Amino acid sequence: MIRVAIADDQVLFCSGIQMLIESQDDLEFVGAAYDGEAIEALAHAGTPDIILMDIRMPKVDGITATERILAAGGARVPRVIVLTTHQRDTAVLRAISAGASGFLMKDATPEFLLASIRTVHDGKSVISPSGSLALIHDLSPERPGPANDAVLASLTVRQKEVFHLAARGLSNAEIAAASFISETTVKSHVSSVLTKLGLASRLQLVALAYENRLVR
């Protein structure tokens, strides 16, 4: 069972999500929180696998709550899917940098929401790297100066190559073809890159690349 919680200050919206989650055989609804402080407490007490996190909430905003929950660590660190009403909301980029595994529009279809929960639970991002590339390009401010290659100092030469290709939005299959290695090897390199850089997802990888002028 995939344990799902939601953080949103709209009680009716939370109730609708609860009904949707409870209609699925492989999902379990473990609670709703109506402010940022409450979802932090629920994350520790209810041990959800997935948290659907609104960005703007009373007391503590969703970005701060995401940072705190993920920084707390523990045996079961939940994955966070950010909920927003505006696709070009600059807070989305901040949420991804904070560790969110992706984002969803609040008007997404029930089918897409359910598929996203399962996708993120499998360790993937809600949106594809190619889709996130356009989003982050639009939201990231242009920063003058040279590329900050120092952030990649812990990576091997091959891992740096994979990083740059992934940051451009290439899929595992495309990276494998460009680097003349297998997809299995690509997955292993991507996993190592995320671990060494302290990133939670490929979305964060793309954001990091733009923030440090490693891709244009």
UniProtKB/TrEMBL annotation:
- Which InterPro entries does the entry mention? CheY-like_superfamily, NreC/VraR/RcsB-like_REC, Sig_transdc_resp-reg_C-effctor, Sig_transdc_resp-reg_receiver, Tscrpt_reg_LuxR_C, WalR-like
Short name of one Pfam family for this protein? Response_reg
Domain HTH luxR-type: from-to ranges: 148-213
Which residues, renumbered to this chain, carry the PTM 4-aspartylphosphate? 54
GO molecular function annotation: DNA binding
- Response regulatory domain: which residues? 3-121
Q: Which SMART domains match?
A: HTH_LUXR, REC
Does Transcription appear among the keywords? yes
Instruction: State the Gene3D superfamilies in the record.
Output: 3.40.50.2300
Protein's recorded name = DNA-binding response regulator
What biological process terms from GO does the record include?
phosphorelay signal transduction system; regulation of DNA-templated transcription
